[in-house]
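hiii so um. not sure if this is the right channel but i have a protein structure encoded as tokens and i wanna go backwards to a sequence. like what aa goes where. can anyone help
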């Protein structure tokens, strides 16, 4: 899953010389919370958030204070309030890399730039969540079942083969290795009806690696997992 497939484009941008009052208007008119700041060559040099404006806007202001606040917003340029040299991402990076970069840099938004640093799009945590839902198929009806399996050849295939033999259609399979010798596996599948799904689940009732299964509001958690 590539960033280019999930980023928002085109992007509303501002320059270093844009006034904070204009930036506030763009936030309001476009229903956004962040604006990439570009220099004269169109290179991303900063990121301005609606939160940044609060430092220049007094709360509970009335009368003269409001007029003074507007004057401050008019006279203050975005380069004075922006976060300089923000973390960015390339369009051909994966969504997993983007999520890791957000975590590492403690940010929830990444301008997407080309090799010259020019803006191509913008990626927020919301797009990352949407990509995750698409990857897992969580927005599709069916059953999610979780296992803890030995990390060796054949253990996952055995589970998948049982589901296929039962006539289930696999929506997604996610697997992560823990401690080198075990892995957590999440499988999302569906059948023709609830009865067929129940039959598929029944064959895993005594499986040593079964951890849980979930379907709609139904949830089953196995008390212990003793996969061998």
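sure thing!! here u go:
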């Amino acid at each position: 899953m590539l960033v280019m497939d999930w980023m928002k484009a085109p992007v509303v941008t501002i320059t270093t010389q844009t006034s904070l009052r204009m930036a506030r208007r763009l936030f309001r008119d476009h229903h956004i919370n962040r604006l990439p700041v570009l220099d004269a060559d169109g290179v991303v040099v900063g990121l301005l958030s609606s939160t940044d404006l609060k430092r220049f806007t007094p709360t509970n202001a009335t009368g003269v204070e409001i007029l003074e606040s507007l004057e401050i917003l008019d006279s203050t340029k975005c380069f004075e309030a922006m976060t300089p040299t923000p973390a960015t991402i390339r369009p051909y990076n994966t969504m997993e890399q983007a999520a890791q970069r957000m975590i590492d840099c403690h940010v929830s938004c990444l301008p997407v730039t080309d090799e010259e640093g020019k803006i191509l799009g913008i990626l927020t945590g919301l797009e990352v969540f949407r990509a995750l839902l698409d990857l897992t198929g969580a927005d599709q009806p069916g059953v999610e079942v979780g296992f803890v399996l030995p990390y060796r050849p054949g253990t996952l295939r055995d589970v998948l083969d049982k589901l296929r033999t039962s006539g289930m259609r696999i929506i997604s399979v996610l697997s992560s290795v823990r401690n080198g010798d075990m892995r957590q596996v999440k499988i999302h599948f569906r059948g023709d009806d609830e009865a067929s799904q129940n039959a598929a689940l029944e064959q895993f009732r005594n499986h040593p690696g079964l951890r849980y299964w979930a379907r709609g509001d139904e949830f089953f958690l196995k008390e212990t997992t003793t996969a061998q």
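oh and The chain has two domains: 3-133, 138-221.
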